[in-house]
Amino acid sequence: MRLGHLVKRWTSYSRKQLDADIERFSTLHSWYKHLAFKDGGTEFIIFPQKGEQPRNSIDPSITDTAGLHWFFLRICDQSIITDERIRKILVRHSFQLNPFFYHDEMNCWSNSKLNGKRTLRTFYGGHIIIMDRNQKDFESWIRSNYPEHADRILGNSSYSHHNIDEACAPIFESEWLKAVQVIRDSARQVWEELKQLEDVNPFEIRKVHY
What we know:
Blueprint: H1 2-10, H2 15-26, H3 31-34, E1 42-50, E2 68-74, H4 84-92, E3 95-97, E4 105-107, E5 113-114, E6 117-118, E7 121-123, H5 126-130, H6 135-145, H7 147-154, H8 161-194
Antiparallel strand pairs: 1-2, 1-3, 4-7, 5-6
Helix pairs in contact: 2-8, 6-7
């Protein structure tokens, strides 16, 4: 208990490391295929933990096992957090992510033009999102959130994959900025509330292994 108190009193998390964990998690899985648009997106919780979050049990893809990092968990899997008090805090500060959270920039110069403008910054996955099985939910989402881009994106089905990715670039940019901010806010609130639990060490939040 004393160790937990000292850790909480003298240790603050690094925002730079949080941002690095967010960026790492954004490409840890193929979110452009695995997240949803329905009801605003797939709901997640976030919590501090010792070591980087593994990709999976077969291929962890981790480089740091000792530092303070942030884990992301779908809210439907919250039961793996064994302490009910902690679960309530995490769920209280949950947030939603959608397929545009995937943040892998394609560093290439485009030789094509869209509406007479050359686009240089694109992100992987736009064409997959548009042609995905959840296209009905996507159409509703894009028209509601980005009406100024909807017709251009939805009308790009006959274009090349790269042109579709170019059309989606502003959405990737905007959704990334929104996601980073909402995750930062969630992490800050979670950290402050966990500090109020005197017997909780942020390095040792217990989970059921799966």
